[in-house]
Amino acid sequence: MKNILSVFCLLLVLAENSFSQAEQTGSAFLKKYTVTVKEIKEDLQILKRHLETVQAGLYTYTSKAKMDQVFDDIEASVNQPISSIEFYRKIVPLLQHIKNGHTNIMPHLAYEEAINNSFTLFPFDVYFDKGSLYVLKNNSANPSIKEGSVIKSINGEDASSIFKELAVKSSRDGDNRTFPEMVTTLEFNKLYSKLKDVYPIYKTKFITPKNELLDIPVKGLTLKEIAENKLKRYKDDGKWWGETNNPVLKLKINNDIATMEIRTFSIYYARRVKQKFKRFFNKAFDKIEEANVKHLIIDLRYNGGGDEMPTIELLSHLLDKPFTFYKDMYTITNKVPNMELYDESKFEMNFLYPLFKLKRNGDVYRVKGIPGMKEVQPSKSVYKEKVYVLTNGLSFSATGEFASFLKNADRAMFIGEEVGGNTNQNVSGTTVTLTLPNSKVRIRIPMELFKLNVSHEKTNHGVIPDYYVRPSITDKLTGKDPEMDFVLNMIKKTNK
């Protein structure tokens, strides 16, 4: 009874805010954005046609017959008007069949803006380890909840099952699991609000590190409030590396061991911090040669990719024979239909892009001027000693390509988790954002298919590490680095 009264009082307070209580709960928020059955069918037809026309690898993992059936099943499941967010939740499972990490489905922009500005979210950083969901950082209004506590349930639903559901409904390449699980870890409260709902109170059960069961109503907080608590409690401003001025390329040499940390392969982000890949690699490998380094550790964890040129430049310092990075690269169209439904410029996409970048070749359009299609010569300084590469699920996109090529050349030992990308191809590059006209649900669609010049067996997975190492919840709480420790211990044993 006390819990009921507490929730009721909180509802009255929230009702006085700029948004009504109906707007503070996620599903109710978009009731005003209701779509009819006819409009739903129209949006589904538009989505299907645009995926088939624009997405170059749509049927890589799922046959057209199966994909048609999935669309038919979604359409058949709707027999009355629903809100935009409900429609979003119905079509998100398409990602499980498209299986492309650069293709994503996003809710109505108004819903996403509410997540960022007004919705009250589940206020914890979480970590999934050995089947359990843990509190990594307590950003809630209740500071007594201990880090390392197991989250048993949220609003009556098993927390580990919630995590698995959110991960399954997230983008990934092929059958990879590490990428969607890491994205779900980093974006748990936002994904929960999109795929479940938003609440002023989250009824939560915990098991503390002392094995005590707590059944606590946790007040939902806005992202601003969560950030304030995180900064105050953990001295963590919550910024990701792209929002800082920290270098994205680092080299450290200790005796005969060199560690090269590469945060991104994006030329844009390197320029932002006044770094250039070619210059960095040339100087780094000169220093490595001068220091007579016998062991090179390349840290690619959390490297979400970027451009192919930096990966090629790095490979030229690791491979002593000429190589060609891609077998092929193409789009399946030179004109995006109904450009009025896209965020991008019609003039840029349907005139400049095909004029300067595309050349018809049979049923596809080859992309011109791609560095990876040319033979590359080894650099002046080629490192020929042992190479170790650290990876995790967020080693994605161009980083996945680099890892695949290096693995194919049998040039490195991989430690960590499966790379979050297909070993044989990558559908990414030029990407457009479609907004469905009735529901306003948005879909990011990549246009270019890159086929790597490798001979890996088709497994629908990224590079599998030679040694699987993943941080435990204890490692995360104590700041340990088990992947790096593993490599250094391996080198230490080698040197004996």
Automatic annotation (TrEMBL):
Signal peptide: 1-22
Alphabetically ordered keywords of this record: Signal
SMART domains tied to this protein: TSPc
Residue ranges constituting the Tail specific protease domain according to the UniProt record: 246-470
Signal found in the keyword field: yes
Keyword Ion transport included in the entry's annotation: no
Protein name: Tail specific protease domain-containing protein
